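Predict the 3D structure for this chain.
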Amino acid sequence: MSGAAISTVEALESVIGKTPPPMHLKVIDHLDAGALRWISQSPVMFAAVGGGSGVGVTLAGGIPGFAVGDARELQLPIALLDDPTLARSGAGFGSLFLLPGIGETLRVNGRVTGVDAEKIRITVEECYGHCAKALIRSELWSAQPIAGTQDDIAAFVARSRFLALATIGAEGHADLSPKGDPAGCLAQLDGDTLWFADRPGNRRVDSFRNILDRAHVALALLIPGSSHVAVLRGEARLTTDEAARARLTVQDKTPQLAIRVDISCIEMCASPALERANLWPADAESDIDPATLFVEHIKLNKVRGIGPTLARASLSVPGVTGLLKKGLEKDYKDNLY
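Done. Predicted structure below.
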């Protein structure tokens, strides 16, 4: 497999391509009104927290609006984190806010600037909406509640359909990336090694760039419907090895890239955040329209140049949000794998 290993950004981009310019335009450096409304309705989030010693992943929440903030700062009640020991001032922070019934997710990244007995304060550096492909592939919101205790880690991993990948870059910036697939295809456990695939998505590849800088990763795996999670840490490697990719084929589509994680620790436990949130069956009552959020973020993006300026101007055309929504729906249907 060594000959197929990816070790540079150039090699990575030669396999999956460069990030399309529109992906950069939808990223803003603050929480706008749409993002704050999303957060006010979200009952649960995944969080990545890390620094020079590595990165960890946990869940937080339990009720809609558990997190609060303003344009520049996000605040989380420390009591609502499954693992509050991860929070430390100066650490990089990445998060993924979920809304029941909605496939898109809100990603908020920044840095922990304060921790006390009641709350964690995060200075916001990035905010953007993430496409729905991972949640669609996992069928996250169509699940029914699963009762009982989960105690077989290998069986749990085999049945998992959603994972959150936490990474940390050379400059301490954390990233949390969602992955979703049918059971048996998302993650495959071979002793102390875990395999999963890269599927079509937004192609920002922040997590893969981070892995090239720092191989240490953390993952949280879910079986939709269950309030248990499997959390693991280890060293990740990217590969184009044909056999590694072939084992992760879905719908006759073989991924271009496979990720190997040499596990240093793995545990399974109940998530208090998931238990409180009571996500399944999903109650889709949100009035948030992800396509509108995407459009507003592009309008707010401050990147200069003729291309970005024309892109922002085009979004003022009547009906553009509806066209974007149709484009997203077509992409979700045609390019899941």
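The longest strand covers residues 258-270.
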